[in-house]
Amino acid sequence: MKKKSSLLKEQPSGSVPDCLLWELVRNNHAHLKKTITRNFSLESHNVVSRHSPKFTGYSHKPVVDLKLNSNGSLIHYKTRNLANTRRPSSMSFQKTLPKSSLFLNYLRKSIRKHRPDLLRPVLMKFSMLSRSSTDEKQES
């Protein structure tokens, strides 16, 4: 019996390879903002909002996202894991972090597991969000 090459990653049934998906959506999708110099993307799970295959949330299965909550006091950290694709409810992981630099080590450890190439941009975005100030609405 022949062994499969260890270089070929086996795709779950019904899924499309990342490189093919990027080729399909790279010129046209709903979240693409085209400019003369650089294209940006406003899709979820795109940490730096750049339109490139490295940062896109469409073509990478393990994704990372950071956003402020509605009143701006907490940061939502969301990841999606490929191991639980058969269970959509447990496929994504969401944690709410306070705006503190104490959680940089937590992010560093968790991102090294899934996407080590996004470690620096995620840490920069977290520090930017934690330093941002939000004006609370005054009741009159």
UniProtKB/TrEMBL annotation:
Gene Ontology cellular component annotations, sorted alphabetically = ribosome
Q: Which Gene3D superfamilies match?
A: 3.30.390.110
- Pfam families, per database record: Ribosomal_L28e (PF01778)
The reply to whether Ribosomal protein figures as a keyword in the UniProt entry is: yes
The alphabetical list of record keywords is:
Ribonucleoprotein, Ribosomal protein
Domain Ribosomal eL28/Mak16, by residue range, is 20-132
- Taxonomy, superkingdom: Eukaryota
Q: What is the protein's given name?
A: 60S ribosomal protein L28
